[in-house]
Protein: TetR family transcriptional regulator
Amino acid sequence: MTLADHAAPAPRPGRRADAERNRAAIIKAAGEVFAECGGGVDVREIARRSGVGMGTLYRHFPTKDALLVTVLERQFDAWLTDAYQWAVATEDPWRALTGFFEQLLDTQAGNRAVVESFATTGGPSDACVQRCYAIIDELRTRCVDAGVLRSGVTTEDLFLLSGSVSQAVLTTADSHPGKWRRLLRISLDGLSSRNTEPLPEPGVGTDARV
Structure:
């Protein structure tokens, strides 16, 4: 008798499909609930909206934190994809760069769980950070080649700018929603090649991507 003879029977295809549908429904409902209410929401509301029982929810996600991490990771990745595709399709390199910032930050500002994540964990995962850095680097190169970016501006500068405005989204989310747009516009104007004054030398520090 072989080990295969003792193996547990494979799950029926219908059961596997049901499990995948339940998982997808949980993630979709969680994305909506977390965006509206933040990470402190009761998971029973997520189960209710997804149409599954609490047992099913916990089989897929043993803790709320595990579910939140999965949802935020998917959302960040989707937002990066959408913003990047828009930027690539934009012929004007300057508009592609500024529009990327505006679109990404606008999406984040409308999601309460994302705003909270910047306060508790510093934002997205390392994988999303690395991908965002690479996209910004590509957009910066386009602007440099077109002669529209201020001399001396580095990818690190732009990456840190995105993080600083994300913090502005966090600190003004309740008291002055949307005020971050003003800060972003002021910051982006300072990146234009119209500004010819030399920039200060960058300080020595850790890589922002780490």
About this structure: Residues 10-62 form a domain with the Arc Repressor Mutant, subunit A fold (CATH 1.10.10). The chain has two domains: 10-62, 71-210.
